[in-house]
């Protein structure tokens, strides 16, 4: 193994790394925006709301991402009305096709992750919000979603890492992201071992950054939850002490 070649290849993969980070970041953001309302529909008891979302998540989680990518990139061009519409301006570009496929796939998994978080919110918290007169929109925004996101965060962090690794499939539709750039350099240097080790090191570095960010965010939420719990316990202790305080003789009750 040529260590110097590994170090020399790392700067050559910079452009591919930037494209990988861009594709992954935008896919995650779009997927999260799509998944947020779909997760609420998925937990609804109305058939017309949760059944379409159930079918959507089943299809996208039950088929390979590579097949979905090929259907968007190659399949869209086979439909005449798409080729003659304004959508063809977007669907003929490999970057936008990869972004659409990755966003829809990520949204399907994120929807199910958030659904699990929403289902795990304590029933008493929801009932307390109803007792306070909160509307559905208000208690969803103030009670349900914050607790659900906190509960679903570890699983969502894993999904983000998986999305990063899945972005390597974009090289199959001529995108020169990190894996595509590595394959191009391999064709020039005939050194696949060193080049792909360099690419793997970059993937590991990005994964380390993602894991560190989510771990720090989880610790922040845990501190916030612990602080609120301590405040609630202290208030409860004060109320209990007040209730149990003995009444002095001759005192007038209020």
UniProtKB/TrEMBL annotation:
Any GO CC annotation of this UniProt entry: ATP-binding cassette (ABC) transporter complex
Swiss-Prot/TrEMBL GO biological process terms: amino acid transport
Highest taxon of source: Bacteria
Protein name in the entry: Octopine/nopaline transport system permease protein
Main location, first listed in the record: membrane
Membrane disposition: Multi-pass membrane protein
Keywords: Cell inner membrane, Cell membrane, Membrane, Transmembrane, Transmembrane helix, Transport
Subcellular location: Cell inner membrane; Cell membrane
Any Pfam family the entry gives: BPD_transp_1
Family (UniProt): Belongs to the binding-protein-dependent transport system permease family. HisMQ subfamily.
GO molecular-function terms, A-Z: transmembrane transporter activity
Domain ABC transmembrane type-1: 17-214
Keyword Transport: yes
TM stretches of this protein: 12-36, 48-74, 195-215
């Amino acid at each position: 193994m040529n260590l110097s070649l590994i170090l020399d290849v790392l700067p050559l993969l910079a452009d591919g790394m930037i494209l990988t980070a861009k594709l992954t970041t935008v896919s995650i953001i779009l997927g999260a925006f799509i998944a947020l309302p779909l997760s609420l529909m998925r937990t609804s008891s109305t058939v017309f709301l949760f059944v379409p979302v159930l079918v959507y998540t089943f299809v996208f989680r039950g088929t390979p991402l590579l097949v979905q990518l090929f259907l968007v990139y190659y399949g869209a061009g086979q439909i005449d009305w798409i080729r003659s519409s304004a959508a063809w301006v977007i669907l003929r570009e490999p970057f936008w096709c990869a972004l659409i496929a990755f966003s829809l796939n990520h949204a399907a998994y994120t929807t199910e992750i958030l659904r699990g978080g929403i289902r795990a919110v304590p029933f008493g918290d929801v009932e307390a919000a109803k007792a306070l007169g909160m509307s559905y929109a208000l208690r969803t925004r103030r009670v349900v979603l914050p607790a659900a996101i906190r509960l679903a965060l570890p699983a969502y962090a894993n999904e983000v890492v998986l999305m990063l690794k899945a972005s390597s499939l974009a090289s199959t539709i001529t995108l020169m992201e990190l894996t595509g750039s590595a394959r191009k350099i391999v064709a020039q240097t005939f050194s696949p071992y060193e080049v792909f080790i360099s690419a793997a090191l970059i993937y590991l570095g990005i994964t380390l950054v993602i894991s560190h960010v989510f771990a720090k965010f989880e610790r922040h939420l845990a501190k916030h939850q612990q602080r609120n719990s301590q405040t609630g316990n202290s208030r409860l202790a004060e109320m209990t002490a007040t209730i149990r305080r003995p009444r002095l003789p001759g005192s007038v009750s209020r």
